[in-house]
Design a protein that fits this description.
Length: 498
């Protein structure tokens, strides 16, 4: 017993010494950065991480320099300084040196930060591009932890953009690899992180699927751990039986073995009972959480249906009012927009029928609708190559028509309005609507797509136009966003997939 205590004490001493050695290897600049980060002093932490990055790079410690640099990048885009974040990443990548596997591991970190930024901006094609780059770097590095990390990030990507089946498959592959190597704690933490990310982003689909898969894995993992314990006990019993047979003449040895077996059996029985209690508690808790998610989804559906019913019932009465009055017309339009928004939330994406549309003619028709609505000498430009694309025409026409009408209102005389089409991949493309003039303030860009955020004079607009367009884009498994890089006015990007 004294020997075991001595070994345990020595191992604790060595592990503590290793932790202190790691801290000693950390530069003073990095220590300051980490301290500021813990104290939530973002600007101060970012400044010291950049200084630490420069110091490490000058000393030839490229791995530590890259790690500090990407931490500074994360603190930039955390506060929406995307330009500074991209510029710093470019500087880091120019300074990376080392053997091929080490360079691949460092480029993996920079590509991952680009992927995180595009995910934050909900730019699916760009995020996918860097996800593929991360996979190449992970394979080139030969590091298993990066190969597992890429599987985790693939799952996040698929879940975030509604590709549940692909997300389940990738996450299952990662969980299977870690489970087979007995790294149960890592799998458990990965599921918890995935669920937390889903809650943070408000992605109910990600949370529900993660919980369902987590429950199934937890049940099997507990069973495997018990099987491992039983196997270990069987091996111990075999070992003790061998000892007993080898020393059959020694009664003392036999008695010690019997006592040891009894203790092990009692410990295993206690562990099994405790494990059963923990499992039951976990199952009850997760079922309760799953029920809460289902109730929340049902509640949202009922609220949407209730609002839709109210809007439908009000419409006949509103139609009896004098529609020549601006206030009455604004109220009728507002009621119609509410009905439209509710219908979108309750509609099924499978009901849409995509059709092949000739892009140049389609764009010119949309632009013709605003020619008599723009101010004097406003230049209307269409940039679209002679090709066709498959999409749901009613929704796309509505979205682009609304964006162009808004552009006609806010573009000053002698300004420019542009409608552009870009092919982004075999099955993905974009429509871009840009106008010169005063841009939308950065702090309001996310709010313009959210309905009912502020009380408005309905005669000046109800603020539901862009939220309706956003819902239509999402129903087509696409997205609508404001381009953060466009500085000469405002540019909207409609991402679509055929």
């Amino acid at each position: 017993m004294n020997k075991k205590v001595l070994i345990l004490s020595l191992s604790l001493f060595l592990s503590c010494g290793f932790m202190h050695a790691q801290e000693a290897q950390m530069s003073e600049l990095q220590q300051r950065a980490e301290t500021s980060l813990k104290d939530k002093k973002t600007a101060d932490a970012r400044y010291h991480f950049i200084r630490a990055y420069e110091d490490y790079m000058n000393k030839g410690n490229y791995q530590a320099g890259t790690e500090c640099g990407v931490k500074a990048v994360a603190l930039y885009y955390k506060e929406n300084y995307y330009k500074e974040a991209f510029d710093l990443l470019s500087r880091i990548e120019q300074n990376i040196q080392g053997d091929p596997s080490a360079k691949a591991a460092m480029f993996y970190l920079t590509s991952k930060e680009r992927y995180e930024m595009y995910m934050r901006m909900k730019r699916s094609p760009s995020a996918l591009e860097h996800l593929k780059a991360m996979e190449n770097y992970a394979n080139a590095s030969g590091k298993d932890e990066l190969k597992n990390d890429i599987l985790y990030n693939k799952a996040i990507y698929y879940y975030s953009f509604g590709m549940t089946a692909q997300g389940n498959a990738v996450f299952k592959e990662m969980a299977s690899k870690l489970t087979n190597s007995k790294e149960y704690d890592k799998v458990d933490q990965a599921y918890k992180t995935l669920i937390a990310n889903g809650r943070k982003s408000g992605n109910a689909n990600l949370v529900a699927n993660s919980y369902s898969n987590y429950i199934a894995w937890k049940d099997s993992a507990i069973a495997m751990k018990h099987a491992d314990d039983i196997k270990a006990l069987d091996n111990k019993i075999t070992e003790l039986n061998t000892t007993i047979e080898d020393k059959d003449s020694s009664l003392t040895t036999r008695q010690a073995a019997i006592v040891g077996l009894s203790i092990l059996a009692a410990a295993l029985a206690a562990a099994l009972v405790l494990g059963g209690l923990v499992l039951m508690r976990f199952i009850l808790l997760t079922r309760k959480q799953k029920k809460q998610i289902e109730l929340a989804n049902d509640s949202n559906a009922l609220k949407a249906k209730f609002i839709s019913n109210i809007s439908a019932q009000m419409n006949p009465t509103l139609q009896k009012f004098d529609q020549s009055k601006p206030e009455v017309k604004a109220l009728i339009d507002f009621n119609g927009h509410i009905q439209q928004l509710s219908d979108l939330e309750n509609s099924n994406a499978e009901e849409m029928e995509f059709e092949e549309i000739k892009i140049p003619e389609f764009c010119e028709e949309l632009m013709d609708e605003i020619r008599d609505k723009v101010k004097s000498e406003v230049n209307l430009t269409v940039n679209a190559s002679k090709m066709s694309a498959n999409f749901y025409k009613p929704y796309v026409s509505h979205i682009l028509g609304h964006l162009l009408k808004n552009a006609a209102i806010y573009t000053p005389a002698e300004g420019t309005i542009t409608l552009e089409f870009k092919k982004r991949g075999a099955h993905s493309f974009q429509f871009l609507v840009a106008n010169t003039g005063e841009p939308i303030p950065e702090e309001k860009r996310e709010d313009v797509f959210k309905p009912f955020l502020e009380i408005k004079d309905l005669t000046e607009g109800d603020g539901l136009g862009l939220p309706i367009c956003k819902q239509m884009a999402l129903k087509m498994k696409g997205d609508l966003e404001i381009d953060p890089k466009f500085t000469k006015g405002t540019r909207f990007i409609l991402d679509l997939h055929s």
